[in-house]
Amino acid sequence: MRYLTAGESHGKQLTTIVEGVPSYLPLTTEDINESLLERQKGHGRGKRMQIEKDLVDIVGGVRHGYTLGSPIALVIHNDDFKHWIDVMGEDPVEDPQAVRRIVSRPRPGHADLNGALKYGHRDMRNVLERSSARETAARVAAGAVAKKLLAELDINIVGYTKEIAGIKAVEFPDYTYEERDNKSKASSVRCLDPQAAEQMVNAIDQAKKDGDSIGGVVEVFVEGLPAGIGSYVHYDRKLDGRIAGAVASINAFKGVEFGIGFEAARLPGSQVHDEIAWDKEHGYYRKTNRLGGLEGGMTTGMPLVVKGVMKPIPTLYKPLQSVDIETKEPFNASIERSDSCAVPAAALVMEHVVAFEIAKAILEQFPHDQFPKLQEAIKNYREEIRVF
Amino acid sequence: MRYLTAGESHGKQLTTIVEGVPSYLPLTTEDINESLLERQKGHGRGKRMQIEKDLVDIVGGVRHGYTLGSPIALVIHNDDFKHWIDVMGEDPVEDPQAVRRIVSRPRPGHADLNGALKYGHRDMRNVLERSSARETAARVAAGAVAKKLLAELDINIVGYTKEIAGIKAVEFPDYTYEERDNKSKASSVRCLDPQAAEQMVNAIDQAKKDGDSIGGVVEVFVEGLPAGIGSYVHYDRKLDGRIAGAVASINAFKGVEFGIGFEAARLPGSQVHDEIAWDKEHGYYRKTNRLGGLEGGMTTGMPLVVKGVMKPIPTLYKPLQSVDIETKEPFNASIERSDSCAVPAAALVMEHVVAFEIAKAILEQFPHDQFPKLQEAIKNYREEIRVF
Amino acid sequence: MRYLTAGESHGKQLTTIVEGVPSYLPLTTEDINESLLERQKGHGRGKRMQIEKDLVDIVGGVRHGYTLGSPIALVIHNDDFKHWIDVMGEDPVEDPQAVRRIVSRPRPGHADLNGALKYGHRDMRNVLERSSARETAARVAAGAVAKKLLAELDINIVGYTKEIAGIKAVEFPDYTYEERDNKSKASSVRCLDPQAAEQMVNAIDQAKKDGDSIGGVVEVFVEGLPAGIGSYVHYDRKLDGRIAGAVASINAFKGVEFGIGFEAARLPGSQVHDEIAWDKEHGYYRKTNRLGGLEGGMTTGMPLVVKGVMKPIPTLYKPLQSVDIETKEPFNASIERSDSCAVPAAALVMEHVVAFEIAKAILEQFPHDQFPKLQEAIKNYREEIRVF
Amino acid sequence: MRYLTAGESHGKQLTTIVEGVPSYLPLTTEDINESLLERQKGHGRGKRMQIEKDLVDIVGGVRHGYTLGSPIALVIHNDDFKHWIDVMGEDPVEDPQAVRRIVSRPRPGHADLNGALKYGHRDMRNVLERSSARETAARVAAGAVAKKLLAELDINIVGYTKEIAGIKAVEFPDYTYEERDNKSKASSVRCLDPQAAEQMVNAIDQAKKDGDSIGGVVEVFVEGLPAGIGSYVHYDRKLDGRIAGAVASINAFKGVEFGIGFEAARLPGSQVHDEIAWDKEHGYYRKTNRLGGLEGGMTTGMPLVVKGVMKPIPTLYKPLQSVDIETKEPFNASIERSDSCAVPAAALVMEHVVAFEIAKAILEQFPHDQFPKLQEAIKNYREEIRVF
């Protein structure tokens, strides 16, 4: 399973092609829209999120509610494009100087300047239109297909907020997927801990008032994975490596950790590892899950738990100093509108990004031409490892 | 540039093939041996490291001290194999029951059990021989080629220990690559801070006495990277994603972070981003480097700074509970010999793993058939972005 | 450079995403439409080609007539979809039995039966909608981007018909690209030889009358390639291997050959190889081009010449025997409408498929972030090898 | 499944790493040596083939006669390297001018000149040592693993000579795999037709006498493939495309065709396609196999038949004109020793190259962690499609 995305933030549309999905996976427009709409939620989002509803159009690979086995094409139209035709149109323009909204002032914390240097863009709109976090909608669309596939295999995945601006949610180690999913959806900051959530909301409002922005930590929890997904035999097949790579490629993410993560540097080995137990009913299992369900590049059968950290959005009302690339004069990067905190949405994005990597690993390991056969193979595998 | 490795811990040899290296890169056996020998150093390693010296044999792709452009093959022989022929030989055996050193007891924290379930190994030696951290020697060999390539482009990279068992080294933000490299090599725990280093040594000795193991945080620092390496245009081309993926695939690593990393969740946006400055001599630059030299999936021209966390080695004298897969009886996983702390070596491994990803990204971006042309192209690019 | 395509023959649209194109390549809708319209021409096409004009909509990666460096998304809408919503819509249907146009009768020579067995499709419309040669329009769109890139590097490529139904065009070894392109476009069967062309037209008409179909051989000619594109160092980097792989993946193609191709089995070595000459003005050159401009997996600097063979279209008025997969009863595969010969269009498709592989190989070898820099690098390389 | 090879013709060794092989495939040194020794046979080979016996050393991934699931490393040592240390050693030399056997005279038909231009080699030994057909021994080693895997799935593959220097073997359409394998091995030119074989031997002897070389056509025949291997859903997953790409990347191959191949350009559609039949015992089958067992990018269940053409070896006693790259003087490329015909060996090489692509396609489609499970899955699939 692989995918490509295309599209600029104010362009005509976002396009995603997902190749390698089995035939006969049930999949509807609603399945994907549900994910897209969740992405737009969250206390602290700017106005744009409220105005435009992202809706998918499935334009290939699905017929009568089932995948065909052929590549799936997903389009998210940009209704606002009609106001951007002059600025973003694909046709040549007579007078390049007359183009409006040229960006010669790179924003710190964005791809603007580095992208301009690399691709030779003097109008940095050419960078920011693609480097914008809007592209994550296309990744969520791809991930929604993966999430549906996993759900049909009884593998459920949810992302939520663990920390915003230093406010940490308490741990609920015993919460099931369902509890996490319900509580996450019920919270305006996608946080399982109502007390922390309230503080987070206040912190977001305060940041907005201050013209500042705040970041946070999000967690993705995956329930139902059998042991042995991934591999230890070659470095680029380890599941943790693949997940970390995908997560760190999400806009504004600066770190990833599995299970207790960086805490593993502070604890002795005897308190880090998950002892192995067995009983006739369940087969092998662990009493703890400090390693986040991953050991030796493979799943252990315990829930997979991975965190990512998102830096505060760099587009601040509070200006950051930068330099105009034409005049070389310093200026204060000020903006018109922005989100003050995108962490809740980031939880949703990371959920879908992780879903894609897990689904991909499963498809590599099991027969995947026809989805019902995959279902059966997973079922058989669960039994095989139970009695191993 | 791509590579494959092969070889079991007690097998005949480790083999690495690196494909895609330009012609006329100066490269000698010594260049690679230097890295391999550094990997074996470090207070807290077990006896094995002291007995066997890993030495490379270049068996393809290099002639008279220069790369040919053809694939480079690197072999690290295992002198001890003669004692393991019966156990690890490739030839069929008459009586599989008579094979010695069968492993039916999976060690928590290792790939043993998950690998057995996945590949159907009832003798888990078939897992541990490959999942062993010994394979990192093969990855270091590949990374040594990359490191040499980078050095010849005036891009220098060093890994060192930031934290062991909760003991944190102080920050030396102004240290150059050279200072970091010198101080790292001078320290038995590869730590820049001598006070912390002393405490770390003590902690390692104490852990050994306790029959326990300890982990830590390592940092890799890369100096000399021009801005614009990596890309924002597609998620799988972002340099941070690729580095995170490679680092998280190192044995026992449980997390990765760039620059201030998880601290970004606690600071307001105005204190996270690196403002952009310019002067005629240097072109664009940053006064701070909180984002670790990466912005929008690309380098910023500041040093690239990335940390990884290594969990304590799971092979402890202090036993962890597990279950024999044949008898299903619980047992205490006890071991004969082991390292109590492998963090210093992990710093070296991560250095080489990061070097490979960076070299790969550079080769994708610049002409790379002939190394001297690559050198010239990098030089020209540095000037172009200086005057951009 | 890589691409994915999606879309069913009677679905909403064909979608192509091309990733890895440099910034600042001039590219317009017209550039791509020109290729798409050429694909629809050719004596012997059925009615469908005449009714629907394929036109591209560039929906990502291009702004104001230039590529941005970001992925390029290309859409070819299917205006006829409104008549196919019930049959091909993505939404679940209440009564799957009521769906019209179910295909339970596999056509010999098509993917129908094999695809049904693999993906478990009992309605083989699920196969044929994707396996249809209509998908080549999406590949032509991707190839048109490559063709434009090559043209701007003074590398020109054209495909034409060499043989239809055993009627062979004479060789015009001295024709330039321009002559080949002009004569090909002027011919209703895309054949350089007017006498042969006339016979081919007659053969096509006769086949139509007979209710039969005919195939042929097409040739692609590439002028302006410098020597040394491709590589000998690893098998999967050889340019001939990559071109052969891409050509053999075109619908209905059953063979590929370079230069004299299969004739090389009949001639002594002294009459097969192209002797090497040199003069001050041109540097190294060849007096003959029997090997089709490829030697050791790389270009020689002579025109690249590659042929492909297309089998006759299997959808015949003259019935072929097959078996209904529901009733297991034999039936005669009869059809309502069809092309009797698609060879001229196949020449155009192959031209674009080869263009993509060549552009890809060039982008791997030269700096490719910014197109003007690529142009300069190619210019410099041409001079370097001239004076080598 | 993927592989890399490394090694120069007169270097220390050839190295192959094959990654992605399931665990518990029976595999011995003999399995691979059998293939290597077959490669060295054949009337018309030069002396080198008779002196050195290529023997493999399995140095990773296999234990006690079974694969481990970890990467397999295969080494073919070059005993003659001791005589080549000065010329080919990896260590820097004091006086590069003093190096013996510098090659400044490119041989037409070889990679010498194009490789020199690309990689900047003024000593073209740096090209020819890697571009030499000796590398095919490393590919045969990789293919031998694939061939063993296929054999254990009752999929058998054999390559043989169809034509040498215009002498064509008659067709034996009804020969089984076993007959083809036996007759091929019994013939000194690996030809099924004893009359043609005799003429071929004479032609080879005559060519040798003439100081010339001759090429030919080889065919690979694969029996036992179930229908539906490969895919039509995306161009780069079509099995014919992959096989053609791999075959065209074999040294000296100039063309590939499937089934009747180029003949398809001369026959009407009604005589090209393979009608579909069915009976209760066999399920679907074809009465003819004109398309060579491939339709729509997938297997049909009939034997896969693919031909490749090898040009005459360009290293002739009969000189070809070329130019010294230092003096720019023309010279006659003369040689000391050579094969006059390598077609029989090419049949063996192609057999192994095709085996690898088929095994790879099967592993992508079926569960492949444990070989016994793959066996069972193939068995079940055969039954499923029989009763489809």
Automatic annotation (TrEMBL), chains A, B, C, D:
GO terms for molecular function: chorismate synthase activity; FMN binding. NADP(+) binds at residues 39, 45. It is an enzyme of class 4 (lyase). Reduced FMN (FMNH(2)). Keywords: Amino-acid biosynthesis, Aromatic amino acid biosynthesis, FAD, Flavoprotein, FMN, Lyase, NADP. Its EC number is 4.2.3.5. The keyword NADP applies. Pfam families: Chorismate_synt (PF01264). It comes from the Bacteria. GO terms for cellular component: cytosol. Transmembrane segments: none annotated. FMN binds at residues 130-132, 251-252, 296, 311-315, 337. Pathway: Metabolic intermediate biosynthesis; chorismate biosynthesis; chorismate from D-erythrose 4-phosphate and phosphoenolpyruvate: step 7/7. One of its GO terms (biological process) is chorismate biosynthetic process. Its cofactor is FMNH2. It catalyses: 5-O-(1-carboxyvinyl)-3-phosphoshikimate = chorismate + phosphate. Belongs to the chorismate synthase family. This reaction introduces a second double bond into the aromatic ring system. Homotetramer. HAMAP family: Chorismate_synth (MF_00300). This is Chorismate synthase.
